[in-house]
Amino acid sequence: MNNHVMDQFRRYPTPLLVALLGILPLAPVYAQGRGEPGKSIGTISVRGDLIVMTLDEGVLGKASLFDLGHRTLRFTPEAAGYRVENAAFHWDTDFGPELNGSQATLKNFSFPFSGKSWNSFSVGVTGSMTFGEPPRAGRGGRGGPGVPGGRGGGISVERFAELQQAGRTLINTVPAISVFFKPRMNGPRYMKELDDRAVITWSLTEPVGGVQDMTWYPTVNRFQCVLHKDGTIEMSYDDVHAEDGIVGVYPVVAGGVEKEIGTVNVETNSSATLNLDIKDVKLAAVDGLFLKAVIETRGPVLPEGDAGLAGVAYRVCLNSKRPAGDCTQSAPAEVVWTVQGGAMGGRGGRGGGAGPRYFASGAGLLPTIKVEGNTISIEGTLPAGYKRGERIFISAASQGPGEATGSRLAAHAVELSGLTSPEVDLSDVKKGDGPFPVVYQAFHYLKPTRAVDLTCTVIKALGDKFDFLAYYSDFRIDNPEAGTSSSGPLGGGPNGGAVTGIGANQRNLASYCSQGRFQWQFIQPVYVGANQMQEYPPADVKENNTHNVAAYTHQLEERTSNGKVPPYDYAMSQIGHEMGHRWAAFVSAKVGNETVQLGPTHWARGLQAPVAFPYQRPVEASAMGGGVWQDNLDGTYTQLDDDYYVPATGWSYLDLYLMGMIAPSEVPDFFILRNLEPTGRDANNHPIFKADRSKVTVQDVIAVEGPRLPDVDHAQKNFNTGMVVVVEHGKTPSKELIERTSGIRLRWMDYWETTTGHRSTMTANPR
Fold first, then answer.
1. Rounded to an integer, what distance in angstroms lies between the CA atom of residue 101 and that of residue 122?
2. Which of 43, 270, 407, 586 could form a disulfide with 503 if both were Cys (CB 3.0 to 4.6 A apart)?
3. Which CATH code fits 258-421?
4. What is the pTM of this model?
5. What are the structural domain ranges in the chain?
């Protein structure tokens, strides 16, 4: 790395996220439809005190890693889109001045893109450009918070988005050029404008040194985009360390022009009820970009809100070769699009949603579903490799509640007239393959498994003997972060029964293959090469950022006999925080006449949440959020410890009450600060805020949630965690994976007993 670039990395430290997203209302949906129960996806063996899960062939799909180094891509506009080709590599070493912020302005010409001419655009810190104001959602997007535009400019995606799927969701959200978009990258951007072109250059690093990061040191990622006056776009890649990202051109294509492809009819009637009895499937190309499938039944499709909707499902399967079987959820189809009826969930699993509705799942499928009379319509993009004029095979099926009989449409061949996949292999694409209305490639690691499938694989093999399950792997999955969120059915431990009074209810035990014991888990395995699986940070890492464990080196070394920081500190941050979500942080409190949320999901920043039994420092805020606040008695408050869980911290008195470890009488009164306004720092560099203070007691929590039951005298005190190492089909766990998971296992048992004040025990016994 040259000195110029190294200086830029020092000037632009990687921003870290304030807290992990813990519980999710629903586990992520991958290959299977929403709410479908878990199934075994591998074989289980026991090695010492660890569980070894060897995945079945094909479970993880295939990785597609970045392969455009020292290449130049040229996108040439045509009336219908862009022709794409690999051109001779060109790199302009004169970057021009550094951009001050994300906004770029052209003075010499206007750039034609997405049907307009632009004199300004946003250059994102994560490797993309957007034009105009980002809309809230689009035909191709999911409409989630911040999806079209990011705070650092350019595009963004949902926090745990898989890049393999995210490339599709960017379609028709905002006019965009993705030169090399990867979430959480950071660094300087430069722009040089000439008479006939503008050159934009990025020099970025992947996130560095944090608990959710893959590296302790900055990485080099230099790439460049040239915007030509005639609308031609060139992207060049000088030196790119990252292997996952999105490259492509995303003009908005929203004409809604349909071109009929054909109709596939069912030859014989089925015995299914009329709303499930498929008559035919009509196919059309929309804007040359989306495949529209209209399923027509012999009777009216149930409308949203109908009480009989839960459990109803319709599926469309696509294959490039004739499939051997029907269109089922487990069919070996290249694409399975599912429309499934179900109920909306509420906070913490409470319910209280808007009634039954349809949900769409499947690679490339848009979330919009249209129900009209005897038809239900869906749209989506085709997977990579599907080209205009080729023959594909389409099949369909329906299903009623409780596996009730539906109908089947056997596979029929159709020709893809007027339609091609927007996802291509950019290293091999040729001008003759276009034009493409939208064209991109998503480079990604292996497909994440479903949480319920991981759990069912373990429980079916070893029995329902685990309260928690933590997963670690030798392979990287398609996740922009090195860590994992968590979820679970909130089982009742060895004695069964639900825990009440914590703001979250027991649910979906059968989906996790549990008879009532299993409670919580990592959603995805943590990669062995991630920072959080290292025993210690590198000795030469020096850091002042208090969200990096290296900033606490001197303080933490003082408490150990070997003069090192405690081992696997980041791993304890992750597992302590995520397993803590089994009980927290979902409760509210009745404060005067107002019901105040103390979370949700994580304790509010202004919640006074000091740790009852600190793990390693005298003053710690809860692993679940909140802070340690000093009242200065003048309307200001000093934050002695923040709501970030680095280094690893223990649990607050409120956490321990919700966990069943202490009685309500042992929870000191606390408070919540709202309307925080920074006013400066004290002599020890602690931030000071003005705020409005409201006193809270545990009885205020009980007034909203009810008492915690079982109470402290009857609550579970002995827990067991399954420590699972996950390996690909045909492979065995590496030495590093075994050693590091074993080290984390030992620290986890010590962490648990220390932070519960030795009122509880933790085992990690697979037998």
1. 9
2. 586
3. 2.60.40
4. 0.89
5. 19-60+447-578+716-763, 72-253+438-443, 258-421, 583-704
